[in-house]
Design a protein that fits this description.
This protein has 343 residues and is an alpha+beta fold. It folds into two domains: 195 residues, Fructose-1,6-Bisphosphatase, Chain A, domain 1 (2-Layer Sandwich), CATH 3.30.540.10; 131 residues, D-Maltodextrin-Binding Protein, domain 2 (3-Layer(aba) Sandwich), CATH 3.40.190.80. Helix content is 31%, strand content 23%. The strands form four sheets. Strands 4-3-5-6-7-8-9-10 form an eight-stranded mixed sheet, sandwiched between helices. A hairpin with a 5-residue loop joins strand 1 and strand 2. Helix 1 packs antiparallel against helix 2, helix 2 packs antiparallel against helix 3 and helix 5 packs across helix 8. The longest helix is centred in the first third of the chain and has 23 residues. Bound molecules: 2,5-anhydro-1,6-di-O-phosphono-D-glucitol (AHG) and manganese (II) ion (2 copies). One manganese (II) ion (MN) binds next to strand 5.
């Protein structure tokens, strides 16, 4: 029988790599290992709450809006609280930021402060909670700049290539934690009997070519010309310039769409559109596009906003939005080229 490797063991081995050579790719210091264990533990609790559904009284809307003006679901709030409570006392963090909180959450004075900054989308795919479709938690980890004793929103405004860890946990038919610390992507499936995440795939690779795209087609009339051109060519199938038929999927949970792409390839797009032209896109840079973009790159794919690499965007606001095109490299390059040709 092949040996089962738990997330704990996987992380401890990465930590040993750090003791040998601190700047080796994928080597993680003890405080980062602790952070990732704590995030995984929080995801286990969220998974339990999700699984209970109506029996746990977790479905439906809460009576509040978040900073983006979206009606919060009960699970958005529960997941946010679980992540904060799990992470605030361990001494590994300086502060947290979340889709569900307007400002940053500084670790209270009664606890020691660490050097890490944690950002999360506590519950991604909220519209799918009540209809029993896959949802998830997305997270991104940065290091606080050493100067200055206090932590501010400014400390978070670092481009995605500065992330030291990123991942998501998908609550679907299985609960799976997907993680990168900069040396590829690994997947861990939750063993509910044991209560632990077990390594089930390493060296995840996104095929460079694909015949599958994911976009919300109901927005077609609002898209910009390069996106229209790309999708139109896909839809022409064998009779068009691409010379092959394409398939389409849209789950409306970024975690679920990205998980499919990491598993079998594809291209995901939530582009800028003319519904709200002053907004650069719908998805959020810091806790959706950056962590997902890094995971996809670590698996050999690409992620752009149509013009530039997502991970090179210098953020100016915590809740900044961005246009997102990510997945199989050759398709992302093509969409990006169509933008350049149109400019
Ligand atoms: P969230 O539930 O965290 O607000 O994110 C939902 C996002 C993303 O997961 C998904 O790809 C997209 O919104 C779906 O948007 P549409 O309903 O416009 O298709
Ligand atoms: Mn989201
Ligand atoms: Mn969310």
């Amino acid at each position: 029988m092949t040996q089962r490797i738990s997330l704990t063991r996987y992380l401890i081995e990465k930590q040993r790599g750090h003791e040998g050579k601190a700047d080796a790719p994928g080597a993680i210091p003890p405080q980062l290992r602790l952070l990732l264990e704590v995030v995984a533990r929080a995801c286990k609790s969220i998974s339990l709450a999700v699984t209970k559904g109506a029996l746990g009284g977790v479905l439906g809307a809460a009576e509040s809006e978040n900073v983006q003006g979206e009606i919060q679901k009960k699970l958005d709030i529960i997941a946010n609280e679980v992540l904060i409570e799990a992470n605030e006392w361990g001494g590994h963090l300086a502060a947290m930021a979340s889709e569900e909180m307007e400002g940053i959450y500084t670790v209270p004075n009664r606890y020691p402060q660490g050097e890490y900054l944690l950002m999360f989308d506590p519950l991604d795919g909220s519209s799918n909670i009540d209809v029993n479709v896959s949802i998830g938690t997305i997270f991104s980890v940065l290091i606080k700049a050493p100067e200055g004793p206090s932590v501010s929103e400014q400390d978070f405004l670092q481009p995605g290539h500065k992330q030291v860890a990123a991942g998501y946990c998908i609550y679907g038919p299985q609960t799976t934690l997907v993680l990168t610390v900069g040396d590829g992507v690994a997947m861990f499936t939750l063993d509910r009997e044991q209560g632990s995440f077990v390594l089930t795939q390493e060296n995840v690779r996104v095929p460079e070519d694909t015949k599958e795209f994911a976009i919300n087609m109901s927005n077609m009339r609002h898209w910009d010309a390069p996106v229209k051109r790309y999708i139109d060519e896909c839809l022409q199938g064998t009779e068009g310039p691409r010379g092959k038929d394409f398939n389409m999927r849209w789950i409306a949970s970024m975690v679920a769409d990205v998980h499919r792409i990491l598993t079998r390839g594809g291209v995901f797009m939530y582009p800028w559109d003319k519904r709200e032209p002053e907004k650069p896109g719908k998805l959020r840079l810091m806790y959706e596009a950056n962590p997902m973009g890094w995971l996809i790159e670590q698996a050999g794919g690409a992620a752009t906003d149509g013009k530039q690499r997502i991970l090179d965007i210098q953020p100016t606001k915590l809740h900044q939005r961005v246009s997102v095109i990510l997945g199989s490299k050759n398709e992302v390059d093509r969409v990006t080229r169509y933008h350049a040709e149109a400019a």
